[in-house]
Amino acid sequence: MSVQLRRQRGAPALDHRPLARAAGRLLAELGLADRELSVLLTDDARMRALNLAHRGRDRATDVLSFSQLEGEGGGLHPELLGDVVISLTSARRQARARGVPLRHELLTLLVHGVLHLAGFDHEGVGPARARAMRAEQARLVALLTGPGRR
Questions:
Q1: What are the boundaries of each domain within the chain?
Q2: Which of 7, 32, 98, 141 could cross-link 27 (Cys pair, CB 3.0–4.6 Å)?
Q3: Residue 82 region, left (φ>0) first, then alpha (ψ -120 to 50), else beta?
């Protein structure tokens, strides 16, 4: 298993090592320990550009996932799970609004993004599949943020 985590130049400063460790634990929990995951921490301006380019939505978003297993060329390298991009700007804003630590919000966004890469969805699917994703997200966030977790 390999987790590559980097912060884009210009994005708010953050010690991302705990998030990288959590990503490794998350992959193991999902039975994806043999896969490679890339995580990029960026800002709202970059997220807006990515959201527009890849989803046709001209607004910033908090997290985007890009599967390496789908689309043209998907599956050529099955060890490559995909990429998760998280806006630190949105994460900080959302953490304040929800009254949770930034670490908790970042873990929630990481879990959400990785679940999309693992085949879960909540948009354009029936209510049962959307509920299943929300339930799995809650379970994994609790696992990663439970007592004694850094």
A1: 2-145
A2: 32
A3: left
Contacts (Cβ under 8 Å, ≥6 apart) of 50? 64, 85
At 12-48, the pLDDT tens digits run: 778 888 899 999 999 999 999 999 999 999 999 999 9
Q: Where do the DSSP E strands lie in the chain?
A: 2-7, 36-42, 63-67, 80-87
Smallest Cα–Cα separation from 30: which of 131, 147, 114, 133? 114
Nearest Cα residue to 86 out of 120, 133, 44, 145: 44
The two three-digit tokens of residue 77, written as one number: 């390298």
The residue written with tokens 């001209």 in the block is 58
Under a CB-based contact definition with an 8 Å cutoff, are residues 56 and 101 in contact? Answer: no
Q: How far is CA 60 from CA 20, 22, 32, 42, in A?
A: 23, 25, 29, 11
